[in-house]
Amino acid sequence: MRSAIRSGVSGFLLATGLCLATATASAQGWRDGTPMTTARAFAGAALLGDDLYVVGGDSTSGPRSVAEIYDVRGNIWRPAVALPVGLQHFGMAELNGRLFIAGGHEAPPPRRADDFGGPGATASSAVSDGADTGNVWIFDPNVGTWLSGPSMPAARAGHGLVAANGQLYAIGGRGDGASRVFVYDPGRDRWSVSGSPMPSPRVASAYVAGGGLIYAIGGLDSAGAASSRVDIFDPSNGSWRTGPSLPEPRAGHVAAVLDGRLHVTGGEQRRPLRTYGDHFVLDLATNVWRRAPSMPTPRHGAVATATADRFIVVGGSPGAGVYTVFTESDVVDIYSE
Which of 5, 123, 155, 227 is 20 to 30 A from 285, alpha carbon to alpha carbon? Predict the structure, then answer.
């Protein structure tokens, strides 16, 4: 299955004159998981027990609402309850046995007859491309459906949503006040703005909690360039400090913490177009990065999790930039040391 996917993607990229970067290290430590049912990039994901929920994502027709569950122990997929709206570039996290989705780029509302020049059409009738949102959706497996939650203080997309200290933290991305940290308190069921502003706001970063801290890793800076910067947020006092820089600038990558080590892989660059499979590991005790075996399929816009002794990377796209939606992947790569 993987070879067929690779061949199809490589053929498309070669036909369009775009080269697919290959991994620069061996695939030692990596193995194939069962492919996802729906290939996609820019989805959201969160682990609930042994189930990895993968929700939403991009497509040639716009943001998706589809949801699937990957059983990380059984290595099988099964369908899940779809989102009420199509969504991409959002934050997703698990807190107290429930799944939260916050913000993102939402699909446009259904078209009306006058959008197509039908009865009642006017010169001002236009088809929307959708918009960034501050809406929140909550899934309780005991209820079995997505319910609307309290909206964030402002619309935001391309950010991270991280659970830490019994609360949710929306960090980075684009939107009004994107440098500020939005905090959700489940006890009060409300959001607030808390802590110091992010010192270098970015989009397409990777966000992960480790050792009671939240790491904002790489991403695109205000000039649109990939960054190697790592900023660390302390939820206990709302302060930021600078962490050890990534060995190389990255954007659109994924990260997860496994056994006290922070794993980062994937990403893209726009000039020239390229995707990466490089795999970097930060020891949180020593703050030293090392290079690990590269992911077999270079790609960006994936989702990732860590559980037991595995770092799992799902979906994404091996095509960078405008080629992303034409090369979305269903691949599951699993790393074990």
Answer: 227
Q: pLDDT tens for the chain, 337 residues: list them.
A: 454 444 444 444 434 444 444 333 336 799 999 999 999 999 999 999 999 999 999 998 899 999 999 999 999 999 999 999 999 999 999 999 999 999 999 988 765 544 433 433 333 333 347 899 999 999 999 999 999 999 999 999 999 999 999 999 999 999 999 999 999 999 999 999 999 999 999 999 999 999 999 999 999 998 999 999 999 999 999 999 999 999 999 999 999 999 999 999 999 988 889 999 999 999 999 999 999 999 999 999 999 999 989 999 999 999 999 999 999 999 999 999 8
Q: Is there a contact between 294 and 22 (Cβ–Cβ < 8 Å)?
A: no
180, 191 contact by CB (below 8 A): no
Q: Is 326 helix (H, G, I), strand (E, B) or coil?
A: helix
Edge-to-edge strand list for the sheet holding 279-283: 254-258, 261-265, 279-283, 288-292
Where are the extended beta strands (E) located within 246-309?
A: 254-258, 261-265, 268-269, 274-275, 279-283, 288-292, 303-307
Residue pair 64/39 in contact (Cβ under 8 Å)? The answer is no
Residue pair 329/32 in contact (Cβ under 8 Å)? The answer is no
CB neighbours of residue 321 within 10 Å: 16
d(CA 326, CA 16): 11
Class of domain 2-109+133-335: mainly beta
